[in-house]
Amino acid sequence: MSQVSMTVNGKSASGEVEGRTLLVEFLRENLSLTGTHVGCDTSQCGACVVHVDGKAVKACTMFAAEAEGADVRTIEGMANDDGSLGTIQQAFQDHHGLQCGFCTPGMVMSAAALLSENPNPSEAEIRDYLEGNICRCTGYHNIIKAIMAAAGQDVSGIAAE
Amino acid sequence: MYAFDIERPTRLADAVKLLSDSVESQPLGGGQTLIPTLKQRLAMPDRLVSLGAIDEIKGICTGDDGALCIGGTTTHADVAAGAGAYPALAGLAGNIGDPAVRNRGTIGGSLANNDPSACYPAGVLGSGATVVTNTREIAADDFFDGLFATVLEEGEIITEVKFPVPEKAAYMKFEQPASRFALVGVFVAKYGDGVRVAVTGASEEGVFRWSEAEAALSADFSAGAIDGLSVSGDGMISDLHGSGDYRAHLVGVMTKRAVAAA
Amino acid sequence: MPADGGIGAATARREDVRFLTGVGNYTDDINLRGQAYVHFLRSDVAHGTLNSVDTSAADGMPGVLRIFTGADFAEVGGLPCGWQVTDRHGEVMQEPAHPVLAQGKVRHVGDPIAAIVAETREQARDAAEAIEVDIDDLPAVIDMKAALEDGAPKVHDDLTSNLCYDWGFVEENKGAVDEAFANAAHVTTLELVNQRLVANPMEPRVAVGDYNRGTDDSTLYTTSQNPHVIRLLMGAFVLGIPEHKLRVVAPDVGGGFGSKIFHYAEEAFCTFAAKALNRPVKWTSSRSEAFMTDAHGRDHVTKIELALDADNNFTALRTDTHANMGAYLSTFAPSVPTWLHGTLMAGNYKTPLIYVNVKAVFTNTVPVDAYRGAGRPEATFQLERVIDKAARELGVDPIALRRQNFVTEFPYATPVAVEYDTGDYVATMDKLEEIADLSGFDARLAESQAKGKLRGLGINCYIEACGIAPSNLVGQLGARAGLYESATVRVNATGGITVMTGSHSHGQGHETAFPQVVADMIGIDASMIEIEHGDTANTPMGMGTYGSRSLAVGGSAMVRATEKIINKAKKIAAHLMEAADADIELKDGQFSVAGTDKSVAWGDVTLAAYVPHNYPLEEIEPGLEETAFYDPANFTYPAGAYACEVEVDPDTGKVTIERFSAADDFGNIVNPMIVDGQVHGGIGQGIGQALLESCVYDESGQLLSGSYMDYAMPRADDVPFYVVDHSCQTPCTHNPLGVKGCGEAGAIGSPPAVVNAVVDALQRAGHGVTHIDMPLSPSRVWQAMQG
Asked: Which of B12, B190, C462, C573 is the most core-located residue (most Cβ within 10 A)?
């Protein structure tokens, strides 16, 4: 066991970890930040996406020890300071971009990374960027719509009510 | 996963030392393949030596000979963003896996693993690049040694890859529908002294050069130049995603498309 | 209508807030004090004799608390099957034992052999590697038809063969059907595979067993769509725990799609081991483990024949299906290829004679059970494919052929034992033609051709039977359960309401939609109403959520309970206003006396119920809480018409979905936003089946598609925006809300549209392709184009 320290959602966090402890395990088990989920073991589903030093990464495919000193942001850190939903979160609710909610934290974190890189993405760019985030409930329709809306685009013309 | 220790040296020399001492050690690049492998308990190192904190083997620059030099621990995302001098290579890097994978996965890790469906081996072989390690320089034509195998020695670390920049190049990947790895990927690069064509995803022997196409394209760099050429389906990977014949067919299609896009 | 949305409002979902901020409570988020972890040692061969399991080297390893094997479960019941099918000869199905841990044999890759409970997951896994298992490999049976051949290895040695049942429906019609085929002007025949799928909810299954030595109570936290059903099956049939000593909690559940209906060995194990060890025991499935332990779906091999007369009227339909059961009977497996499949073979058409034969077969594979649609997608796919093929053979327009044969008068009694109450298939087809812009297809075709792509248009209809079911009917059909639903409406003194429902939400949005109904009935804000579900300790006995039944059955129970509340509240209001009960009206949360200006508010009445100082105590009890159980009179019959346009890359065979349109009739709609979302998700899964997904075993029974590296899940760039419409509404006539159910429609209706479109594209390009089996992967489409 060794000590690891990092900043998580703006607060310093540290704990004892093994070499094999994954970042997602450190978040869920040491810090009880259970919003970050594990949906596969081959680094494909993206339910575990968090930001490490501003970049989206799969927390199930990174060791906690490798996040030593890093600035980590999780779904629990995405709301506004007053506790209200952030822009992307609000757009997901407004446009029904989630159903069971399990993939949602990863989707929101990937969407946030996309919009920081590309504030006004096209539909195709959003679909491409979400290659590593699998949703089984929504058929992606309302996720794409929500992210377009979060980018400030007019989504009223998109098919369906 | 089996238990192991992790070391995060900040100097290459320390990493080399750790990998050569008596503890059963394995280098850890971005971990995007190694960590899933460890989860399956298919590897049992006593120690992982993370290369991620070694700044001296990270980054992109242009060498004296004009080659694009990419540090071994440079992530796919950084290559996609920073290899503007070699757009085909930047494009290849920018389409590996997904954004989160590209933020962790490294060129050195990908090459050392030599997955038969990975993209980078095609880019390296198709560019006639040079793989630089802590001990030597290895020409791309000598580096790959079959599925998941390279000529790297135990403990040898890829510190840099030097890509001569071609006149024209393109990479075309036809994705396996599930993994999104290359079912067939073809990298075509036109240099002053000829054309190189490297194929990944297709062969049971791993990445290979399609010499007939190279000859035809060296004479006439157009998609039409490879009309009538084909590779045999024998020796091609055959699995639930496609037969050897299908892969062989795609080699031709993707080569033409790469030439057209170059 | 309530200010914050009653029936018909696209109310934003209240549950989203916790999911979007990472504070949902999924089963894997639950960690109990003193919790231990179990790892299952699973068979890596498909079929073998289990000679011995030697745990001696593992027992003393660090952290190991106890290792269980099949012998520990010798005195415990096996996993029960909840449906008994009687075959065409009057014999009941062959029903093998299904032990919690393997006894004597292993029957599929993933069959659990031993369970190691340890202080940590990795310690349990370390110990598993030290267990010596002696298995004599036996030849595996994977292919269904081979499994039925004489001399085939038997999956279960105590059964007479690998045939579970040979079901004929309607058996008395068989002669008439054969005669109609003999007299047909045209017969179209199609052989097809409805491939094996894996449901893949994004949350893998988890079970946490807990035991209270002080009270002798057991609790199971589990990822279930129906906690009461798990309590009943596990308590009564497996562990022998009476229901009052057993609590099952299914908290936030990350999708189910059928795969979380069933009672699984891991649930029983964790509950059993928690008591044996007097410690909580947790199991979290990895995705790789899920692929070889979650019940799979579909896996039918079918020959279908359609007979038509000289005027292209359908005169008879005949099918011959082999349905894979896998190695054991999962909870509701026998019902899927029979009563959920054969009864839907009429589709939207007035075919007068139908005969369905289904042979259910045991193989050395993971058990197969209901997956989104369950039997109805299989019925729809074969029917809509054979109709499309018939239209092409006859040179008639596929839409016209369908329209000509539509059922147009309701109620309609089909020749396969069900009665459609309402529908308007002409209206949904008209709507489809409009929203899919079929008149613009030729222009889009020309655009595709200019790009060097092939383009095709596929159309199909579907009907489904939802809201299972009348309990007395399904009892006759072999169900070993009732299929009602329950609700308790608890009104608090200050007027707020808690509704406890036996339905379970794992993505469907009950917490938002159910309050819309109650709010609408009373005329108070929906925000005053809270839904509780998923905990057997505080909800009445319910049957859970599957088969698009939540609103139609669970919602109806809630309506009935709310009606009781309103009736009682009116009596209280009448007393308060010194008026007759019959004169009391309730509108917008105000009780008034008809023809007067006297009124009392909802809150005054609810307060009086709990502070009964001025109260008719001699007539009614204090308090305001009512429970209702609702047992439907019939299934509901949602129906619709779907259209898909594809492009095919002639060089690679890759298919892209360019347009997808769905016109559905779900009857009345409570929350149109949620309904849209359900249809989107179903279409996404249907496109997944049509183009991408396939669960594949090799001949030895090894699972080749055991992870997302080889099982192709639909991703965001595999699908387009969908055009969905549910403005055609023929309300259900027999439930109080007039609703029909929308959860499975998309998954039922979309696969044939996609395949019809690809066949259309290839035929337009001159290829003589009449069928390609799903998934229409690039390699399969390319192969088909090679002739």
From this structure: C462
As beta bridge partners, residue C222 has C207
* Under 8 Å between Cβ of C141 and C68: no
Residue B132 above 90 pLDDT? Answer: yes
Q: Which of C44, C120, C652 to mutate to test the interface with B (most CBs of B within 10 A)?
A: C652
What is the Cα–Cα distance from B119 to B97, expressed in whole angstroms? 10
pLDDT level of residue C2 (50, 70, 90 thresholds):
confident
What does the domain layout of chain B look like in residue ranges?
Answer: 5-163, 168-261
- Tell me what pLDDT residue C1 has: 66
**C297 with C370: CB under 8 angstroms?**
yes
The rounded radius of gyration (Å) of the Cα atoms in chain A is 16
CB pairs < 8 Å spanning B and C: 51
Using the 8-state DSSP alphabet, how is residue A85 labeled?
A: P
The three-state secondary structure class of B131 is strand
Share of residues in chain B with pLDDT > 90 (%): 99
**pLDDT at residue C726 greater than cutoff 60:** yes
% residues pLDDT > 70 (chain C)? 100
Query: Which residues lie across from B5 on neighbouring strands?
Result: B47
**Domains annotated on chain A, with CATH:** 2-76 (3.10.20.30), 87-150 (1.10.150.120)
The answer to whether domain B168-261 has CATH 3.30.70.20 is: no
| Contacts with B, A 37-66, CB within 8 Å | 41-44, 46, 49, 52, 55-58, 60-63, 65-66
Cα C756 from Cα C767, distance rounded (Å): 14
Query: Is the pLDDT assigned to residue A159 strictly greater than 90?
Result: no
CATH class of the domain defined by B5-163: alpha beta
User: Do A43 and B36 make contact, defined as CB atoms within 8 angstroms?
Assistant: yes
Mean pLDDT of A69-94: 97
What ipTM describes this predicted complex? 0.98
- Which residues does C337 contact at the CB level (< 8 Å), separation at least 6? C167, C300, C321, C323, C358, C360, C375, C378
Q: Which two tokens stand for residue C733?
A: 């006539």
- Averaged pLDDT for residues A21-29: 98
Name which of B6, B28, B36 is nearest A41 (Cβ-Cβ). B36
